[in-house]
């Protein structure tokens, strides 16, 4: 299994969010080449500003493993995490984070002045599907501005 394969799984989650009228961000948590947690934005659906894709995927992974730590897991997410999600990822001690597209507007970098908010052992990488992720987000906001959502 490759990063491309797992990022496509995250993109599938993002498309679910899009279809539900949510900002189209998706995430999967992977351990031992197996998806152990999935999530997509459900902020509107749940009336919960914390219902980000990463948070939902992390909770599913914690429940799957029966553990609050994910040292041997990787999060694949279609957009760079925000500060809230970065905090949750820090506490999870996740081993690796791969994101498809940078978020210049709401990423953790904007809130931290570029400082790394993740656990010191967490590896952070950009991954595949950058253009696909950005296009889905642009389409979502364009449709929303045009009133077709």
Automatic annotation (TrEMBL):
Subunit record text: Homodimer.
Alphabetical list of Gene3D superfamilies matching this protein: Cytidine Deaminase, domain 2 (3.40.140.10)
Enzyme class: hydrolase
InterPro entries: APOBEC/CMP_deaminase_Zn-bd, CMP_dCMP_dom, Cytidine_deaminase-like, tRNA_aden_deaminase
Protein name: tRNA-specific adenosine deaminase
Cofactor requirement: Zn(2+)
Catalytic activity: adenosine(34) in tRNA + H2O + H(+) = inosine(34) in tRNA + NH4(+)
